[in-house]
Amino acid sequence: GNSRITRIQGGRISGQFGWGVSGDFSAFVRDSRDQKGALDERQESLPTSLSRRLGSRTVLNWLLAYRATDSREGLGFNTNTIDSTLRFSQTLRWGQWRGSISPGLTVQRVRGDGLQRITYRPSVALSLRKSAHQLRVNWQSQVQNALLSQNTDVMTHDLSAAYSLRRGRHSFTVDAQFNGRDPQGGETVESYRAGLSYSLQLAHQPN
Q1: Which one, of 133, 144, 57, 65, lies nearest residue 102 by Cα?
Q2: Three-class secondary structure of residue 131 per DSSP
């Protein structure tokens, strides 16, 4: 056999930190190895999540995460990644419609053996509800810039929308989705999907 031994150490602090900021800080180290020496790896992670309310209808969220992998055996692959996400969540009131909109931006930097890139991911999520009506729209784009000549820059776009209507036990949903991928020097790929669904809620029959 080839048994594996994994040890995890770490801790977490959460609470209120003043100035209206709440959140948590974590730190973990994971060591893994097997008896035959094919696996000898350390993973380190430092995730942080902070939020602050700005007025009565807006919340600001900030997420920061550091991850590192150190493969100490000969054919291992070493990487370290930093993710930073800033997101606003705004409550919406438009006539009888109620909902929220959440724009955000994630920046990711990756360094490793033969790999360096920085990625930007802007996004917007919209959700509205009015009585029996519900509307959801999500958009995200990704711009991946390779910092080494052997890697390729890639841009992607994703857009989805769904409208639902409920009438008693009957509900109807119309949804659509678009995905696009545009690699530098490569062929642009686009895909589209649209659908219509119906569902019926069956009445419960007592025994």
Answers
A1: 57
A2: coil
Residue of 91, 87, 89, 41 lying closest to 67 (CA atoms): 41
Please state, in angstroms and rounded to a whole number, the distance separating the CA atoms of residues 155 and 172.
34
133-169 tens-digit pLDDT: 999 999 999 998 877 666 678 999 999 999 999 998 9
SS3 109: strand
Q: Within a 10 A sphere around the Cβ of 40, how many other Cβ atoms?
A: 15
Say if pTM beats, i.e. exceeds, 0.85.
no
**What b/e string do you get for 120-154 counting C-beta neighbours within 10 Å, with b at 16 or more?**
ebebebbebeeeeebebebbbebebebeeeeeeeb
Q: H helices within the chain, ranges in order?
A: none
